[in-house]
């Protein structure tokens, strides 16, 4: 079956009214290349049916410098090829402030948003997310800040990343508009969103789940422990049957969850980006999907 037999089906980003692709392209390693090279990667993502692009102000930071580099490079690409911006649903994040490490105060987030927009040379982002929860900011203050961003027209929808179920619930209780997204780490090797109830909360509230590190930080490609090797083997069984790569099988495993989770793929290789179109042809039986889950858990289900 060819990739053309399964065209990407756009879906709603929470209750925002935005339509996005079932896979996102992440720019956490999008730095250190020329604007021309950056454009090539973005075009490859478009060609693979992707319209959701995820970045953050911290992307590019190496522990000493580079804060904002990924956004700045994206801004250079937009300046050189203005037509690209209008084709994407652009998401960015703020709130990580090395070496503090986190700040979600109203003053900081408002300034961080404006700085992100300047770097990307755009006047608006479709989605703005709090990157990590700041324990020292009351959720009511965060809620008012996010609502102010929406009212300003600089932001089209709001979300959170790396929040717990309790933190999401607390923030939502102070919001008069719905959260569009939550962004946890989620992969066959990181099952916490399933076990914590996060994906259940997302389904109950119609919040889109964006999965970062869907390949387990590279451990799915290069498994080390016995448990990782078992999960990789289970993925390989499906990959061989479907005629796709192990990575594609992993992405499709995440996407098979009824929460309609969107994996954020971070490859900076145009050929591998092109392969993402293959994911839409993969269909999982219950047995196949649970085989991966059991292998990843390292123990049988109850």
Radius of gyration (CA) equals: 19 Å
User: Which range best describes the helical content: under 10%, 10-25%, 25-40%, 40-55%, 55-70% or over 70%?
Assistant: 25-40%
DSSP strand count: 10
Which strand order do you get reading across the main beta sheet? 3-4-5-6-7-8-9-10
Oligomer: single chain
CATH evolutionary superfamily: NADP-dependent oxidoreductase domain
Structure class: alpha/beta
**What percent strand?**
5-15%
Pfam families: Aldo_ket_red (PF00248)
Organism: Sphingomonas qilianensis
Protein name: Aldo/keto reductase
InterPro entries: AKR, AKR_Detox_Biosynth, NAD(P)_OxRdtase_dom_sf, NADP_OxRdtase_dom
Descriptive notes:
The protein is an alpha/beta fold and 302 residues long. Helix content is 40%, strand content 13%. The chain is built from 11 helices and 10 strands. It has helices spanning 35-47, 69-80, 106-120, 139-152, 165-174, 192-195, 198-205, 226-242, 246-255, 270-274, 286-297; strands spanning 11-12, 19-20, 24-26, 52-54, 89-94, 125-130, 155-161, 181-183, 208-211, 262-265. An 8-stranded parallel barrel has the order 3-4-5-6-7-8-9-10, surrounded by 4 helices. A two-stranded antiparallel sheet has the order 1-2. Strand 1 (11-12) and strand 2 (19-20) form a beta hairpin. Helix 2 (69-80) packs parallel to helix 3 and helix 8 crosses helix 9 (246-255). The longest helix has 17 residues, at 226-242. The protein is globular. It starts with 10 loop residues before the first strand and ends in a 5-residue tail after the last helix.
